[in-house]
């Protein structure tokens, strides 16, 4: 049986087979990923109406790829008050947002309550607003900083109204690459353990992969395999999100962007390898909107959301980080031949646009 036949028959592929897909004809690979995407989602492309909020950029950790945290290259340190955050939520809720995605740096000065109580305030004021908050990297930081176990932090998140966890902080799981790009931060095993524990509480999360820096193709496949293994056990990942590395204002000396070809191949391969993760998100903030639209034909079935404002990826040079207006977003999806379907944060369909 050829690899093509194996994939079309829905059989699981192994590490070497996955790696060899990078050498497959570009359009044949796209066709295989598209067949998988169509079998699961037909012509639908999901999005949600959301707002990213990044409440502080003061960080105790140093990741070489990060341009968001306040440091020598980014002297504009800030920490929002809860009132400031609530004003943002009030504004976006009045304009239809159904999800707030709240991710911060690892600020040792605020106290644990500052991190956690804001979720309760949001939930009390807007019970229907989905709170997607705290990456596993933040959970690990809070546990270390405040002498708590992961279980204790996760329980506090549930208690305060966090609905789901975002996929940030996964970066690349390979230990050598990880040590080079973000030594000292949550380890790969810890990242996966935190998500496992979260899933065991009946909660869902996402998982990212930061690629296009110093990692090699085999590290990406290894990353996907580790996700697939955990997903077999928990079924708790909603979406895989490959984040295209942005090159500016950070300490990782990578100046070349990956080619669009490499980005699309990686998306397509993730759709094929991650046979147990239902959604592949083309996160347009880091891929550009144009490429995210093409990615719909290379396995991606989700374009994240309208976002409005984002600070982490834009600090590193992402040019498309100030949101897309809803009508334009819908028109872009339609004009590229797909059906825009607004979803909630855990992929229940809300409305076909
Ligand atoms: O974890 C940091 C990444 C992530 C850079 O779960 C960079 O739905 C590119 O996780 N170039 C935060 N990326 C964003 C994130 C996310 C985004 C959208 C949706 C979801 C979700 C999660 O941004 C960090 C890090 O991996 N990042 N620096 C950079 N220079």
CATH class division: Alpha Beta
The distinct ligands, each listed once, are: ligand V47
Question: What is the CATH-assigned architecture?
Answer: Alpha-Beta Barrel
Number of helices: 15
Account of the protein in words:
With 353 residues, this protein is of the alpha/beta class. The protein has a single domain (15-352), classed as Alpha-Beta Barrel (TIM Barrel). Helix content is 44%, strand content 13%. The protein has helices at 3-8, 15-20, 26-41, 82-94, 112-125, 136-145, 150-160, 175-182, 188-200, 217-234, 260-273, 284-287, 289-295, 312-315, 326-335; strands at residues 44-48, 50-53, 99-102, 130-133, 205-211, 237-244, 279-280, 302-305, 339-343, 349-352. A hairpin with a 5-residue loop joins strand 9 (339-343) and strand 10 (349-352). The radius of gyration is 19 Å and the shape is globular. The termini are far apart. The model has no long low-confidence stretch (mean pLDDT 95). The structure holds ligand V47.
């Amino acid at each position: 049986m050829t690899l093509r036949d194996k994939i079309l028959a829905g059989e699981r592929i192994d590490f070497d087979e996955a790696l060899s897909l990078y050498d497959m004809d570009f359009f044949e690979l796209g066709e295989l990923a598209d067949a998988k995407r169509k079998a699961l989602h037909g012509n639908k492309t999901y999005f949600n109406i959301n707002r990213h909020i990044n409440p502080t950029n003061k960080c105790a950790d140093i990741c070489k790829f990060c341009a968001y945290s306040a440091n020598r290259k980014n002297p504009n340190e800030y920490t929002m008050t809860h009132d400031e955050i609530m004003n943002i939520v009030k504004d976006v809720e009045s304009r239809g947002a159904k999800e707030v995605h709240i991710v911060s740096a690892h600020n040792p000065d605020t106290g644990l309550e500052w991190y956690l109580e804001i979720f309760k305030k949001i939930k009390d004021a807007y019970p229907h607003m989905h709170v997607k908050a705290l990456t596993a990297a933040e959970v690990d930081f809070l546990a270390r900083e405040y002498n708590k176990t992961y279980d204790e932090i996760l329980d506090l998140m549930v208690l305060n109204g966090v609905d789901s966890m975002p996929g940030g902080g996964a970066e690349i799981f390979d230990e050598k690459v990880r040590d080079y790009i973000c030594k000292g931060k949550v380890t790969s095993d810890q990242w996966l353990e935190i998500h496992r524990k979260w899933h065991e509480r009946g909660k869902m999360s996402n998982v990212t992969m930061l690629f296009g820096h110093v990692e090699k193709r085999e590290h990406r496949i290894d990353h996907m395999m580790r996700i697939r293994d955990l997903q077999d056990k928990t079924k708790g990942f909603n979406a895989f999100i490959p984040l295209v590395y942005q090159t500016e204002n950070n300490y990782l000396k990578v100046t070349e962007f990956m080619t669009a070809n490499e980005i699309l191949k990686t998306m397509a391969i993730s759709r094929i390898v991650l046979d147990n993760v239902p959604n592949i998100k083309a996160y347009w903030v880091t891929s550009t909107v144009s490429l995210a639209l093409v990615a719909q034909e290379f396995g991606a079935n989700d374009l994240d959301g309208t976002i409005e404002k984002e600070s982490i990826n834009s600090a590193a040079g992402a040019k498309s980080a100030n949101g897309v207006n809803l009508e334009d977003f819908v028109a872009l999806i339609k004009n590229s031949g797909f059906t825009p379907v607004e979803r909630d944060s855990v992929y229940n369909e809300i409305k076909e646009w």
